[in-house]
Amino acid sequence: MLTGNDNVNLQRAGIDLAIYFDDAPSAQLTHHFLMDEAILPVCSPDYARRFALQDNLNNLRHCTLLHDRQAWSNDSGTDEWHSWAQHFAVNLPDSSGIGFDRSDLAVIAAMNHIGVAMGRKRLVQKRLDSGELIAPFGDMRLKCHQHYYVTTLPGRQWPKIEAFIRWLQEQV
C-alpha cells in the first residue's frame, strides 16, 4: 500500500489499483467512479468561539486558513478556498494561511485549533457528527468538479481487484 497525492505508475510501483480525487482520470488507465464530493469550511468549536465565527462570515478575515496544497492534480495550492469563496461571494483574508500536502493534515490542524480548513464533506462528516469539528457557516458547501475514483491497469480485471472495487463502491 502506498499513500500520497502524487499520480503513481501502477506498473512500476507493482500495485494493482489506486484511489484518486481528481477531475481527469488518466486515459491510459481503467477507472471506476466511487463518489462525488463537496467542500465546506470546518474548524474546532473552540476556534469558532474565539473568532466569533458562528454564522458570521465577516470574521473569517481574521482567521488562519488551512490549505490542502495538493487537493487535485492541477491545484495552485489555494484553489479549494478560492473556488468556495468565489461561489459564495466571500472575501478571504489577505494572508496565505498554512499549507499542508494532504487534506487530512489540514483537518487535524483545524481540530487542534490552528485555523479553518476546507473540509471534504464525506471525509469530515464523522468528525462533524461527533462535535470534534463544526461547520461555522452552516451548510455552505460547494459541490466539487472532482470526484473519487479507482484506477487499474487495462486488462487487470482480476477477480480480487473487481471484488475490492465492488466492496469500495458498496461502502461509499
Helix and strand topology:
Layout: H1 10-13, E1 17-22, E2 30-42, H2 45-50, E3 65-68, H3 79-88, E4 98-100, H4 103-111, E5 116-120, H5 121-130, E6 142-152, H6 159-171
Parallel strand pairs: 3-4, 3-5
Antiparallel strand pairs: 1-6, 2-5, 2-6
GO molecular function: DNA-binding transcription factor activity; sequence-specific DNA binding
Domain LysR substrate-binding: 6-171
Protein name: Transcriptional regulator
Describe this protein's structure.
It is a single chain. This protein is an alpha/beta fold and 172 residues long. The chain has two domains: 14-36 and 146-171, no CATH class; 39-143, D-Maltodextrin-Binding Protein, domain 2 (3-Layer(aba) Sandwich), CATH 3.40.190.10. Helices cover 30% and strands 24% of the residues. Strands 1-6-2-5-3-4 form a six-stranded mixed beta sheet. α3 links the parallel β3 and β4. The radius of gyration is 18 Å and the shape is elongated. The two termini are 20 Å apart. The model has no long low-confidence stretch (mean pLDDT 87). Residues 6-171 form the LysR substrate-binding domain.
Properties at a glance:
single chain, 172 residues, six-stranded mixed beta sheet
| Helical run tally | 6
Classification by helices and strands: alpha/beta
Q: Which CATH top level class of the largest domain fits?
A: Alpha Beta
Helix coverage percent of residues? Answer: 25-40%
Topology, number of strands: 6
Output the helix-strand order. Answer: HEEHEHEHEHEH
CATH architectural group of the largest domain? 3-Layer(aba) Sandwich
Q: Characterize the largest beta sheet: strand count, sense, and whether it forms a barrel.
A: 6 strands, mixed
Give the averaged pLDDT, no decimals: 87
Global shape: elongated
Proportion in β-strands: 15-25%
Regions with pLDDT < 50 over 5+ consecutive residues?
Answer: none
- The gyration radius over C-alpha positions equals 18 Å
Count of structural domains: 2
Distance between the termini: 20 Å
CATH superfamily of the largest domain: Periplasmic binding protein-like II
Largest sheet strand order = 1-6-2-5-3-4
Say what the CATH topology of the largest domain is. Answer: D-Maltodextrin-Binding Protein, domain 2
